[in-house]
Amino acid sequence: MKFEDKKAHQVKSGLEPLSSTIPDASNAGLSPSQQSISHYPLEQHLAEYKRQGFTIFRGFLPPERVQEIRAICDPLFDELMQLEHHRNNPLARDTIGGHDGWQEGRQTALGTMLMDATVFNPSGLLLDFTEMLMGPSVQHDSLQVAGYPSVPLAYRGIGYGWHHDGFNTAGTTTKKGPKAYTYPLACNCLTYLQDMTLERGPFRCVPGSHLDFSMQVPLPSPDNPAEHWSVPGEICVDGRAGDLVVTHCDLLHGSTHNTAAGEYRYFISEYVQQAGLPHRDNMDDAAWAHWLAAARQQEDKRILRFFGEGKDAYQAALEESWRQQSARSSSTA
Description:
It is built from eight helices and 13 strands. It is of the alpha+beta class. It has a six-stranded antiparallel beta sheet. The chain is globular, with a radius of gyration of 21 Å. The termini are far apart. The protein has helices spanning 32-35, 42-52, 63-80, 106-117, 125-134, 289-298, 301-306, 311-332, and strands spanning 4-5, 17-18, 54-57, 94-97, 138-148, 159-163, 186-192, 204-205, 229-230, 235-237, 244-248, 253-256, 265-274. The protein has one domain: Sandwich (Jelly Rolls).
């Protein structure tokens, strides 16, 4: 696969954002609260996810919920904008929360609000869909708001930062070429709080790259330290305020520079994974302590497993089901 150095193309406007490719369909298979979010059956989102490595749920958060979150985040990012490392740095990135923890005060309240808006969204969509992807074994890894300050207009439409996400299989073999679909070991659930215009810097990816071992991340070089690469087959995803994009950890993806003058681009990232894998967040964080306490009281195995508890019992149940399947297979051989 040939990667093209984008430094030679800074005069170009870049790729215009493309919409999700889900065809029209009925809303069969969706709960009433999910129907207000997406007009497509979850099975069709699953088929799209398997085919292209991501799918979009439009209107996951209603406008009033987006504005409520932004009213808290905007002042926090205004403070971060003053940091020294932003000066003359087109790759500056800041996060609130995540594995650094949700600090006391307004950040803890924000962490609680974001967990409520995403994982505990009234639709139940995030957990329902990721369990379709990974089975009833979804575990929290990290929750954060990732933000990118604006950079000079010369960077408009330029992509950078190509990578695969944690627990990917892309770098585990020297084999090249097509690979069979395998369920993800982890998914990034991105909820947008702004329309991802070309100026703000949309999510970029190569649809179907999770099905091709040849789609490797290019290495930086002295001539291209900012990794401004043009990748064959790349698109910009048309993410809008309130949308949820769920990605496969093997999807080759990156970002586009934010050139919206004086404006931060930021979004919510809820990273989920197979139960039992190493996680980055502290599961006893005060931001979601009341959900964990309620799950313990009610013996809610689904939520306990999501926050990293009951893994041994779940693994034992899996191993028992494997033994039973093996015994059935042996008896019919």
